[in-house]
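[recover] target loaded
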């Protein structure tokens, strides 16, 4: 969260002339509820199951850029599905930067806690090794503009195809 997945994903898809998809958007459309409502009414395990189901539906398609929620790597099955779809690019930002970017947002269920800054630190401490293991390429967006992050990804993709 707060690393620029949506903005970078949309811009990257545009530059590659591909469709942009977001797993959270697909889940919200399928469920007819916001992510925040899904977490509140049915819990995180239910939401994680929805993430996996959405990925399974995408596995047979190509020609798209997909953004996922940060927790998608919590299931090894999801990482396998994603790797089958295409390269995994991790957008990373330092915890303090993430906090500054998301502190005013109320739609993030994992941050509806007394100390969101500490929660971000804890979440990233657990997930960072999972992200690093899953990622084919990492872009630290802590001090990058969207266009700069997209440029790094485009250069990496170009180097992979040559």
């Amino acid at each position: 969260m707060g690393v620029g997945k949506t903005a970078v994903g949309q811009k990257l898809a545009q530059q590659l002339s591909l469709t942009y998809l977001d797993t959270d958007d697909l889940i919200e459309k399928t469920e007819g509820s916001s992510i925040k409502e899904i977490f509140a009414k049915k819990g995180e395990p239910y939401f994680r199951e929805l993430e996996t189901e959405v990925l399974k539906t995408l596995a047979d398609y190509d020609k798209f850029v997909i953004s996922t929620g940060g927790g998608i790597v919590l299931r090894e099955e999801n990482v396998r599905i994603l790797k089958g779809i295409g390269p995994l690019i991790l957008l990373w930002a330092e915890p303090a930067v993430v906090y500054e970017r998301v502190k005013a947002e109320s739609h993030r269920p994992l941050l509806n806690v007394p100390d969101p800054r500490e929660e971000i630190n804890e979440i990233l401490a657990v997930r960072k090794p999972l992200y690093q293991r899953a990622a084919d390429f990492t872009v630290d967006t802590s001090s990058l503009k969207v266009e700069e992050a997209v440029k790094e990804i485009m250069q990496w993709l170009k180097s992979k195809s040559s």
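[recover] notes: The longest strand covers residues 19-22.
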